[in-house]
């Protein structure tokens, strides 16, 4: 089976999640700048989650360029990733509406952690199908970022209980790590 | 007519349904773990429906790989399936928000039953078009799971009126039956 | 320019509209069958609009199979059609929540009328681009249904002010007319 | 990397935004024409934003026809554009619900301004990748409309603080400028 529909379905789900996020930005009743001020925490969480979903879409896109065929196991590993991503609008809203309180900020990180693990599992399932000597396996190499991220999320979640903004800073840091484009795959394609 | 647009449209509808489900998870006001506790019934129904929509997408995907052409009848059989699936967010929310009360749990099962029947009708329409000696017809074989599922749903619905959680257990059982990948089709493709 | 993206965009918009419709079905608080009874008008409007959006998607799909290239004018004619379709969830909810009162039922028909006109305009723009001797022009023939529908909508809208259910009956009648598959195009493709 | 998935993802996001807009049209409780009257400001903002999103989709579509390959930078430039577009339902609703008050009308224009800048950046990234002697670069020429629009938005935003409807008139004017089809690209394709 080719990757066409898996890509189309994932594109649709991520596109919907990214736009559902914006539904959590409640339209204020007062037509004043001050009303936007109250939205700052919700808006910042929105931006962070938009970037995260963008990163996942981007990496998913890059990975699929090097994937030739899929099987039932890969389809489910992909749905598993989409499951954790589908909770992002919920955790984002909970964190933003509560002004980065400890528990919601930790739960936000737990969701990111599960998504990262699900992405790793998806990647493994594809490498198994493509073979250890495939272009994808070579492009991934030691996959340092993929291995460091879960550790950072765990640190971020733990920190959130004590100093939520420090936990948040870790999540922002991981996002920045991934914003650097994945040159491995782009050079493999070339 | 080729299957491209039917697949794209179905992908989009199922992707939207799967993400609309999450809109029913109301963001709690308190930033405490206890607030998540109240969401357990709604969240469990969410997970079950996510898995069901995943199964439908997966099976639809497998079936379409072996489908070469579609006609007007197939397009409508597909829309008919999407209709029953489109009610899943509604029945899921009703069941979850009422803590698996008898009537909503039964109605949830009735929706699953109609979706299963609609899937069966769609499959028949495709087999008729492809021919009894097509790869799809061979891959489906006796279609045991397809025939047993409606019976199990009817049992689940009936049980729901007496012991809702027993009805729910049947729905979970059917989902597990289908989670086992459909090797018939994957081996036919190979 | 080929039709690929116009089809993908239209599929996505219609898929979203069809699923947004279901958001208007408010989840009742009581876990009783009686609660579903209250939903009957909303649910019936839902079914009617689902069928209408299905018809539009179906006809759009058939028409595009015979369309080879698009230009800027066609893209805008298509967006114009999508505009009137995008109002369907609004008019459906207004009609359903008000138990088929006169004004909302008439407005529902006005939206259907504009959508039908927009579809006609889109069809003309494509025939102009494809040429009067194209397969599409031949398949459409005199386009009787396309010409009768607006007349029927106008009758339905007028009737709605006096006897809303009679207006509604006309809308149902037009839907039934279109449910009969468009054999002209299917036989042209063959 | 080819443009397929970037197009599919952008199509999905814009399609969802265009339909989310309609969710802001609150269904009135009274079944009277007068109830629609109250919706006029919200509805007019809806129409304007629908046209803007249609213009962006249309121009994006035209630009991508002349784009052969994408890289990580282009994917992010595209996500950046989608970010500003994703705020359109929010700014539209805020402006419409407050009857074109000064601040929301100015903020609406600021969002349009950022979207225009993001589109310009995306276009530049693609021209850099395609090369200065590419068909796209030739088709864009001096890109007068692209350079005049941000200036007009800034004028519109400034005017909004004094006379909101004058600001709005500028936004409408820019939309009209773009509604004129981009013949440069269509003739390049031909």
List the helices and strands and how they pair.
Four copies of one chain form a homotetramer.
Chain A: H1 4-23, H2 33-37, H3 40-65, H4 72-86, H5 88-97, H6 102-130, H7 135-140, H8 144-162, H9 164-179, H10 183-189
Helix pairs in contact in A: 1-3, 1-4, 1-5, 3-5, 3-9, 4-6, 5-6, 6-8, 6-9, 8-9
Structural features, described:
- The structure is a homotetramer of 190-residue chains.
- With 190 residues, chain A is an all-alpha fold.
- In chain A, 81% of the residues lie in helices and 0% in strands.
- Chain A contains 10 helices and no strands.
- The first copy, chain A, has helices at 4-23, 33-37, 40-65, 72-86, 88-97, 102-130, 135-140, 144-162, 164-179, 183-189.
- The first copy, chain A, is globular.
- The model of chain A has no long low-confidence stretch (mean pLDDT 92).
- Chains in contact: A-B, A-D, B-C, C-D.
Spell the H/E element sequence of chain A: HHHHHHHHHH
Main sheet properties of chain A: none
Helix content of chain A: over 70%
Question: Radius of gyration of chain A from the CA trace?
Answer: 18 Å
State the end-to-end CA separation of chain A. Answer: 25 Å
The coarse silhouette of chain A is globular
Number of helices, where a helix is a run of at least 4 consecutive DSSP H or I residues of chain A: 10
Find the biggest chain interface: A-D, 35 and 33 residues
SS class of chain A: mainly alpha
The fraction of residues assigned to DSSP E strands of chain A is: under 5%
Average pLDDT confidence of chain A is 92
Low-confidence stretches of chain A: none
Assembly annotation: homotetramer
Total beta strand runs of chain A: 0
